[in-house]
Design brief:
The complex is a heterodimer of chains A (about 525) and B (about 300). Chain A has 18 helices and 20 strands. The radius of gyration of chain A is 25 Å and the shape is globular. Chain A has about 525 residues and is of the alpha+beta class. In chain A, the strands form 5 sheets. In chain A, strands 12, 13, 14, 15, 16, 17 and 18 form a 7-stranded mixed beta sheet that branches. The radius of gyration of chain B is 24 Å and the shape is flat. Classes of the chains: A alpha+beta (about 525), B mainly alpha (about 300).
């Protein structure tokens, strides 16, 4: 192994040890903000990033064709305007959009980036999100060369996208980090090292990464080449601490070293006793119990699922089991923030409720016993987090006390749980889903028979038909009607058991204004934040 | 001495090979799939990922490829950070764990020898009882409790003075290192105190101490020249492995104090089934541990000439 001696001994040197003290959480004069990250961003290559932390960091460093404003509406980004019909989408790029080295962002950069994403060699886990673009799926399966992708640069500032199917939400999709531009010459000059260090990435967003000490800190400073930089107040965001320990982050917050931290059930009480102002936010993710519908599984029986549905009380789950503020009761696969035709979807299409009904439950259970012979002990697969285990034990108690069904809890680490979910070694699994883009389909297609994330292998031709209809239609009413029916099927068939919509509680330094919390996209978003004296 | 050293080194290489092989087998026995993530991927993407990491080949072939790469000092690319080489991870983060570990060992060794000798001198009297009580506490309380308490102490200290006297977490200056290294060294210090005490007590009753006293040597001279030097041998024996254990066992302390050390990678790689990082860190730490043991063996020869003769 090559270890250069100077670098190895750097931490041991006296100058290094006696270096400057860390900066404060907020500094008005220099408009500098200091935060902590929960983990090192695993991947800053926008074509390959999949996780929340990388997405949030990238959201401050890069910009796609469109962006979110403070309130989460889609507004022009690198593209100043666009036109879309059922077959094509055309974007006109602004003249002053520039990379951090001062060169213009062109339509070619988008074409190149999108070709990298769908190239099977890149092995991007988010390639599926480009599927509405013509030939994207075929290229990703290795059936067509990347040059056949339905995205072409008509000139430096005009990008034309041919759609594989009418996609009502295509423009909203392009906010996502997988759609960010990548400049070919820079990408190729870095090879395998692309995005591995601060100098191995080119930025076109409001900030640029000037320093990245792995697992320790990321320094983001205002990008002077960003086209809208006059509307950016912050001069620097320093992510000076990286730790998953919520208590350590609360201590840093108390000590005035970081300006933002999320709380959990334990640190919540400490924060309360210190009289901090606790804020809440609903993340937009739903958590549910997913049944295994594979043939031969007891949970394939509808009456058994209906029996469980009738004894589950989402209020008890939210208030007694989770017991931290901010969570909403689980009523539907579709969270409350999803947009419908004019208003919120859940207002226009209220989710059907079973309500707690022990009589109904017993009736369903009798039918299930008749059909299955007897109910064998069921296996509930959960992740190894304390909350998941607690929820599992609650469900275990409910099933045993109310229905006399024995439930075994199978606690597994992240990868093992995924492996078992994929191979179908479970009866019920504690699962959750977060949105990737601002359209109902980001949840709706989850239980389509072809969706590989449909781990319980639910298969219903009528549900599939409704999803296809929503995918291919551009008429809001038709689409929402279809999804309304899908929501009804999910309930009638008890496909999943919604448990809660996730809420988080957090602390934010009162001197910062304009921090956006988002259900989709970088969250928290400090792009438009400013520090007041 | 040279033959002795060479023999030890050869045995060391065999040990490292054995560690690598055992880890490789154990790792592949762990259920779960290193390439699986939240979002399910198509068969083509999966095949490409498998090819990238060589998982498409039979396990035995993977093993020999791994051995070959290991001999040339290349541990491959991380599974979780797909553009970072394992060698870079070790190079970037081991020095930090090492400096933290060395400071901790410094605290532990000076403290352990001192307290141990003190308890032996004051055997069964108040200082002995108090220190031994603290030692039991140090051995039985896990490090994450000390880490949390230590950090809380700093928060209160800083709020008392109204400004940051000592940073609560993070890495960079000597001030950042004080609390984590003390917390990290605490368990070892307790262990060494107990060891030092018992070996001191043994030495106190030896004939050569009586002889020294009879000769009229000063108590200080007896203490340093005869007692301490003889009693310290077992401490040095455990010191080598303890250095390795401390520099690897800092996971919790690194997490609580937000220190970018290698310990975090070592533990998280196992949780995430990051094959290349598991192999890289385990082999590296294994080799480090073996090296420490060998160094202690050789050091023995200098401190106790009898070892050299046999």
């Amino acid at each position: 192994m090559k270890i250069s001696l100077p670098k190895f001994f750097l931490p041991f040197s006296l100058a290094y040890c006696l270096g400057a003290q860390a900066s404060d959480a907020v500094d008005f004069e220099s408009q500098t903000l200091t935060i902590a990250l929960t983990q090192e961003p695993p991947q800053l290559n926008s074509a390959k990033a999949t996780d929340q932390v990388s997405g949030t960091v990238l959201g401050h460093l890069m910009q796609g064709l469109v962006r979110y404003d403070r309130r989460g509406n889609v507004i022009p980004g690198v593209a100043e305007r666009w036109e879309m019909d059922e077959k094509t989408a055309t974007f006109w790029l602004r003249e002053d959009a520039k990379w951090s080295d001062g060169r213009p962002v062109t339509a070619h950069d988008f074409v190149f980036a999108w070709q990298r994403v769908v190239d099977p060699k890149t092995a991007s886990e988010y390639a599926f999100i480009l599927a509405p673009i013509k030939n994207a799926a075929e290229i990703n399966e290795g059936k067509l060369p990347v040059t056949q992708l339905g995205a072409v640069a008509l000139d430096d500032r005009t990008l034309q996208v041919s759609l594989a199917r009418p996609t009502a939400y295509f423009v909203k999709l392009t906010v996502f980090n997988t759609f960010y531009p990548i400049r070919q010459d820079f990408f190729e000059s870095r090879g395998d090292q692309y995005a591995a260090e601060a100098k191995d990435l080119l930025y076109n967003g409001p900030f640029k990464l000037t320093e990245w000490t792995h697992s320790a800190s990321l320094k983001m400073v205002k990008n002077e080449h960003y086209w809208d930089s006059e509307n950016i107040s912050l001069n620097a965001i320093h992510a000076d601490y990286i730790t998953a320990d919520t208590r350590a982050r609360l201590n840093l917050y108390t000590d005035g070293k970081i300006a933002f931290t999320r709380l959990d059930g334990e640190t919540y009480k400490d924060a309360l006793s210190q009289r901090f102002r606790i804020r809440r936010f609903t993340t937009g993710s739903t958590f549910f119990l997913e049944y295994n519908h594979r043939p031969g599984k007891p949970t394939g029986n509808r009456n058994l699922r209906k029996a469980i549905q009738s004894v589950f009380d989402p209020d008890e789950m939210v208030n007694r089991v989770l017991a931290t503020p901010g969570n909403l009761r689980g009523e539907s696969l579709f969270p409350v923030w999803i947009k419908g035709v004019k208003d919120k979807f859940r207002k226009e299409y209220p989710a059907p409720q079973a309500g707690y009904n022990i009589k109904e439950a017993k009736r369903y259970l009798e039918l299930a016993v008749k059909e299955l012979g007897s109910i064998p002990p069921l296996v509930l697969l959960v992740s190894d987090s304390p909350t998941a285990t607690k929820q599992g034990e609650y469900i275990q108690g409910v099933l045993l006390n109310k229905l006399g069904i024995e439930l075994k809890i199978d606690v597994q680490t992240f990868k093992q749980r995924l492996a078992k979910m994929t191979s179908g070694e479970f009866d019920i699994v504690g699962a959750g889903w977060g949105p990737d883009f601002d359209d109902i389909l980001t949840f709706g297609d989850l239980f389509a028979s072809w969706n590989m994330n449909n781990r319980g292998r639910y298969n219903n031709p009528e549900y599939d038909r409704l999803v296809r209809l929503t995918m291919n239609s551009t008429d809001p009413k038709t689409r929402m009607d279809a999804m309304g029916k899908a929501q009804q099927i999910l309930f009638d068939d008890a496909v999943v058991l919604p448990q809660y919509e996730q809420g988080v509680i957090y602390l934010l330094n009162p001197k910062i204004k304009g921090v956006a919390r988002r259900v989709i996209g970088p969250d928290p978003d400090f792009t438009y934040a400013r520090i007041v004296p | 001495m040279l033959v002795y050293t060479l023999k030890r080194l050869f045995a060391g290489v065999i040990t490292v090979w054995f560690i690598a092989t055992a880890t490789f087998i154990a790792m592949h026995q762990v259920p779960g799939d290193p390439l699986m993530n939240d979002k399910a991927v198509s068969a083509e993407i999966r095949a490409n990922l498998e090819a990238k990491y060589g998982l498409d080949k039979p396990v035995t072939e993977q093993y020999f490829i791994f051995l070959g790469n290991m001999l040339s000092g290349d541990f491959g690319i991380s599974f979780t950070q797909q553009n970072r080489r394992v060698n870079d991870i070790i190079r970037d983060h081991f020095p930090i764990s090492a400096i933290l570990g060395l400071l901790a060992i410094f605290f532990a060794a000076t403290g352990g020898v001192l307290w141990g000798a003190l308890t032996a001198i004051y055997r069964n009297r108040l200082p002995d009882i108090v220190i031994m009580f603290l030692v039991i506490l140090g051995i039985s309380v896990p490090s994450f409790v000390f880490a949390a308490l230590g950090q809380l102490f700093l928060v209160n200290l800083n709020s008392l003075f109204g400004q940051s006297i000592i940073p609560v977490a993070g890495w960079g200056t000597i001030w950042h290192m004080l609390m984590p290294s003390m917390v990290l060294g605490l368990g070892t210090m307790a262990l060494l105190t107990r060891l030092m005490r018992s070996s001191m007590l043994e030495v106190v009753n030896e004939d050569y101490i009586k002889t020294a006293r009879a000769k009229g040597l000063s108590p200080t001279r007896i203490f340093f020249r005869h007692q301490l030097r003889n009693a310290i041998l077992p401490v040095i024996t455990v010191l080598g492995p303890q250095i390795a254990a401390i520099t690897t066992g800092g996971f919790v302390v690194e997490l609580v104090f937000a220190i970018p050390g290698l310990g975090r990678y070592f533990v998280q790689a196992v949780q995430q089934l990051d094959y290349t990082v598991i192999m890289g860190t385990t082999v590296f730490y294994g080799a480090f541990l073996v090296l420490m043991v060998i160094i202690v063996d050789i050091l023995y020869g200098f401190i106790d000439p009898r070892v050299r003769l046999s």
